[in-house]
Amino acid sequence: MSRFAKAPDEFEGVRLESQRTILKLVSRSRELDAAAIERVTAILAAALPPR
Fold first, then answer.
1. Domain that holds residue 16
2. Neighbour count for residue 45 (Cβ, 10 Å)
3. Whole-angstrom distance, CA of residue 24 vs CA of residue 3
């Protein structure tokens, strides 16, 4: 068993995603056009600034 616990997928009803899984979710959806992707990118950049 690893000494590190697996991160939860959900916390208090909010789905938790990594940068990689967000990219997968956004890129696999054919319903988002380029403008929608730009809006999502801007929202995520503002909400999740670099460390």
1. 10-47
2. 10
3. 28
d(CA 3, CA 45) in angstroms, rounded, equals: 32
5 assigned to some structural domain: no
Give the per-residue pLDDT at 33: 84
Handedness of CA 28, 48, 10, 7 (dihedral sign): positive
Considering its fold, how many domains does the chain have in total? 1
Only one residue has tokens 């054919």, namely 30
pTM: 0.41
Half-sphere exposure of 48 (CA within 13 A, CB side): 10
Cα within 13 Å of Cα(31), Cβ side: 2
